[in-house]
Specification:
The protein has eleven helices and 19 strands. The longest helix has 14 residues. By secondary structure, the chain is α/β, with parallel strands linked by helices. The strands form four sheets. The protein has a seven-stranded mixed β-sheet, sandwiched between helices. The chain is globular and about 75 Å long. It is about 25% helix and about 25% strand. The two termini are about 45 Å apart.
Amino acid sequence: MADPWLTIIGIGEDGLAGLSEASRKALARAETVFGGERHLALAGITDRGRPWPVPFDANVVLGCRGRPTAVLASGDPFWHGAGASLAERLEAGEWIAHSAPSTFSLAAARLGWRLESVACLGLHAAPFERLVPHLANGARIICLVRDGKAAGDLANWLTERGWGASALWTLTALGGPRENIGVHRADSFAAESSDSLIAVALETRGLNGIPRSSGLADDLFAHDGQITKRPMRALALSALAPRPGGCLWDIGAGSGSISVEWALCGGSAIAIEAREDRVVNIRRNATALGLAHKITVIAEPAPGALAGLAAPDAVFIGGGLDAAMFDAIWSRIGSGTRLVAHAVTLETETLLVELHQRHGGDLMRVDIAHAGSLGRYRSWEAARPVVQWSAVR
């Protein structure tokens, strides 16, 4: 399409003055202009303006297909904005975009931070727990929050979790005549009354955060004893070889610890668990570690729960595997999919030996013992041996 019907325009606090000539021309010829009430006011749009529905619905824009239409969004519409949500629904020739500096770019410029080393998060419509994977001593984080009250809530959230010594900047109306920057400490921050969207910048001070090595401490998870223990979890993750963007089926997920560590590596997981009490623990762990958006929980037994699922990049079976379940899983996964299974019973161990003979891969038995008290002395306390089979389809 030589003349796109939709123009997606990033606008800053300086309004029309900060727009390019192309953006101003697109606004002038648009029959309808969509945006937040603040965006429409900044651009001086009145009778042609249509405020976004809440919650956001791209269909209202698509209803104008074929007629000159503009969309206004804050800064860069493709960074925590409406740009991608619209572009995903359109052909390449239907739209064009003119971006302005993002709030993250403006905040980094005011603070003198290297933006490539800063974590940038949109928390205006997401839980504060999304911060958890990014919290570490000295980490720099810029996040968007709804308003001054939300900034105060975030400061309290940080303080309650041991990060109260963190430096906290509130940055409002960046790039415009009402720009304001406040410097605070999280544990002494008083909520501001601003109703405007606020960027909060953090330089964290406190605990050590979550380690990035495989095999997190068991006590980090809520569980009823049904958990792949730390050493075996590290071995399982090594065999599963998680990569950013990969999808895991975690079958018989128990506490969801494998799913959590996979998601911390940048992937998404589908945790399948039949017992409702364990499903509660999986969801609790995913939420507490800021990964609820990356872990889908299915409260059904396998293999029935697998019906209709998108093909995974890896599969983990922590226990309870039998021949029928293996056949159901193996027939559903594609070439190149990694499968890792653990066995603690003789029956499942026998099955893994047979599968190793039939499909190859790597079979190993792991015996682990921990030091414990024995009267006035110490001795080794052996855990149940675990057999691990890993293979690529």
